[in-house]
Amino acid sequence: MIAFRKMNGLGNDFVVVDARHHAVDISADTIRALGDRENGVGFDQFILIEPAAEPADATMRIFNPDGGEVGACGNAARCVAALLLDERAMPEVLIASAGGPMRGWREADGRIAIDMGEPRFAGPAIPLASEAGDSWCVRFPEPELASYGAAACVNVGNPHAVFFVPDVGVVPLTDIGPKFENHRFFPERANISFVTVHGPDRVEARVWERGAGATLACGTAACAIVSVGHRAGILGERVEVVLPGGPLAIALTAGRIVMVGPYMLDWTGAITRDGFVRDPLPTSV
Length: 285
Known about the structure:
By secondary structure, the chain is α+β, with helices and mostly antiparallel strands. It is 17% helix and 39% strand. The chain contains 5 helices and 19 strands.
């Protein structure tokens, strides 16, 4: 059996497996089966905590429910940082990931802060297809997509496209989200956010996550929203991003993005040959 924790950050939920001491080899088929919310555990991302080279304390690998591996997940980073901070008498931890290193620490109120690094706006770094042009602001030729205006694009460990709209509540997210996610302008697909600005320090957002669909919260999307909004002169350096699952505090400091938000341990279980069982044994990180 492979022990796991079921955790969430603002309802964005994860299966977290500690593979630092015993290597875990899990197939994309198994991840897809476990991600099924009717017949499996159900999650937005599957997380492996693995050993890391110094100075990092651990490596975080992230898999979407479709079995594909991605580079970054802000809400999951808070969960992993919380586990590592609870394990060690250290003021902060460093998490390695495919999207870049992330530094985490606990705020006085118990929330977890993650330094998500610097946003990348260059087309090849996002990445954007060459036919999308050489600007980080992209317009789509299809009339149905063009009606949402320009997408402000950025990489914050994974690719994001952000649309500022008058009312996020009327956006048909499950219909239009996949069309943008899989557009030919995004060779690695993209996370799609629709945002309504209520002021320079507060926005409301809904997110269609690449490979996961509509989620209650997306940490990297919140970082992307503030990064592009500040670059466009719409938002300030400290912004509350209100997602369906709750708010995240995002700050831009010396060009870097710091995200602050809550985390929760929901329950523990184990992956078995036949699926999974709930709470079979105590777990430790």
